[in-house]
Amino acid sequence: MKVGVEPKKIALLGGLLLVAAFLLYRNVFSGNPGSEPRTKPSRVPYAIVPPELIAQPAAVSKTAASGRRGSTQEFRPPYKQKGPIDPSSIDPRLRLDLLVKVQSVEPQGGARNVFQFGPSEIPAIKEPSKIIPKAPDIATENPQHMPPPGPVTPPPPPITLKYYGYIAQRADGRKRAFFLDGDDILVAAEGELLKRRYKVVRIGVNSAIVEDMQFNNTQTIPLQEETAG
Q: Nearest Cα to 190, choosing from 180, 205, 200, 178?
């Protein structure tokens, strides 16, 4: 019988058991093989907040919630009954005298009676005021203070001379015009006077310019056409 082989077998069997235990722990207890190792989240230290700051938002939220609740719900005053009502203490009679007294009071600020049903009174339409045109004040214009009208100057009388042409002298080249005043034949050069009143200003082929010295009136006299036969 060989005794030295037994310790080796025992050591080999122990090694196999250790390997089997390691594989079992890795496959069953530690998760899937090949997966990344899980990282443990680090703890963030919390800041210490004073109790006054923690209580303030709660009070604000409570006030805001009560404000929202009050805005959505109708205001209802609390009514607490002191005790049960005794029917024997209630007067069932109708006080018509009090109703008449209330109806006799004239309402202030309106003409409609709130105790009577009916259409409301239509207010009277105010007519527009008539516009009266203002007459001009003639009395303020005193004719005595107005300046008198100036004298009306009559227009100057027309010149009745008739122009019949002219002749020019060869020596000095002066023109001498012929005029007819009624039955009188008048001859004058430029710058000369006719009847001490009419001044010959210019002598032309078809007309002559004559100035009335008495009335300071200048007039153009056309050339008279000759009548046949």
A: 200
